[in-house]
Design goal:
The protein contains 13 helices and 13 strands. By secondary structure, it is of the alpha/beta class. The chain has a domain of 204 residues: Ribokinase (UDP-N-acetylmuramoyl-L-alanine:D-glutamate ligase, 3-Layer(aba) Sandwich), CATH 3.40.1190. It is globular. It starts with 6 loop residues before the first strand and ends in an 8-residue tail after the last helix.
Length: 354
């Protein structure tokens, strides 16, 4: 891709190669495949697949794993022109155990050499790229001073910054300086545990109330919560029966949220869309394999909403029949389809929401 173009989204972050092991019903594990991962690269791929012109700034080692990450990102439409390939360090990698019962994961990080090379100098070196980007996405895996530099840069230049605090202790309000940084960040997307660590409380509602239209908390099977400035909004999770692998679900959410916000969607629309994307991602093995394209996501959302409409229609019909009987209309008339329109007219107060 051509350098020095304007980007919808630039992700500042690292990558890692994930080596997965899947638990069997007897508690033993079987070796899985090698997958491209790491929160920075994952979020960049998620955003690119969601239709955003996306670049990534971050370091990898000059080794086979580093080449693997770059090629995977390129294949998925991410501009990797600003990835630093560094001699003498190993690209990060992790062992990931996928539990049999709930398909959730336990991650054991084996190397952090590369992400530690994401230093403030890399932000300064690529400031022109950041200035030409509509939205910046970052995490907290890199040295904290790098994130602080990025937060200040985005704030001073009126850039939208979305932060996923995957090292939440670095943003803990026990350090009073972090209160100022939190105010400067445009959006914080975090899971329940990360939120509890940052704000030192289990009361998620009080957290989102304090940071309306900023703090978006994913709650797993309980959905997503945020405050819209007037009240707490809780968007339920999408129920998935065939969960395969939850690795990368949060990054799918973050990338789609960034793409949606950049396109001008409201927070509620962006969260809802990101929920659908995240639900799609857990139906495939690997962090990035299940991330949907914009077209795939549109089709999926339409199919789910059509099912909901059919269910609502069924409920509505049940209400019509029940109210019709109460109104004294004969059951045999109700069962005749050509009588249904007349019955609808006779039964007052029957609506789609009954």
């Amino acid at each position: 891709m051509e350098k020095n173009k304007e980007y919808d989204i630039t992700v500042v972050g690292g990558g890692a190669v994930d080596v997965e092991r899947f638990e069997l019903v007897d508690g033993s594990y079987v070796q899985g495949e090698r997958h491209a991962g790491g929160k920075g690269f994952n979020q960049a791929i998620s955003a690119a697949r969601a239709g955003a012109y996306t670049a990534i700034i971050g370091p990898v080692g000059n080794d086979e794993n580093g080449k693997f990450l770059i090629e995977n990102a390129k294949k998925n439409g991410v501009d990797t022109s600003y990835v630093e390939v560094i001699e003498g360090i190993k690209t990060d990698w992790a062992k990931i155990k996928i539990r049999y019962e709930d398909k959730d994961n336990d991650i054991q990080r084996m190397s952090g050499e590369a992400i530690n090379e994401l230093k403030p100098e890399l932000i300064r070196k690529n400031k022109d790229v950041l200035l030409k980007s509509k939205t910046i996405v970052a995490q907290l895996k890199c040295p904290k001073e790098t994130t602080e530099e990025l937060i200040d840069f985005c704030y001073d230049n009126n850039k939208t910054l979305i932060l996923t605090p995957c090292r939440p202790e670095k943003l803990s309000i026990e350090d009073k300086r972090n209160l100022e940084y939190i105010e400067k960040i445009t959006y914080i997307t975090c899971n329940e545990k990360e939120c509890q660590t940052i704000f030192n409380t289990d009361d998620i509602v009080s957290c989102v109330e304090k940071y309306p239209n900023k703090l978006i908390v994913t709650l797993g099977s309980k959905g997503v919560m945020y405050h819209n400035g007037e009240s707490v909004v809780h968007i339920p999770a999408i129920k998935i029966d065939n969960v395969v692998d939850t690795v990368g679900a949060g990054d799918t959410f973050a990338g789609n949220f960034a793409a949606s916000i950049t396109k001008g969607l409201s927070i509620e629309e962006a969260v809802e869309r990101s929920q659908y994307a995240s639900s799609m991602s857990i139906m495939e093995k690997g962090a990035t394999e299940g991330m949907p394209t914009e077209e795939e996501l549109d089709k999926y959302i339409k199919s789910i909403k059509n099912i909901d409409l059919e269910n609502n229609s069924s409920v509505s019909m049940q209400s019509i029949v029940s109210n019709a009987i109460n109104e004294g209309i004969a059951k045999e008339d109700i069962e005749k389809s050509d009588k249904m329109e007349q019955i609808k007219e006779k039964v007052e107060g029957v609506t789609k929401d009954d």
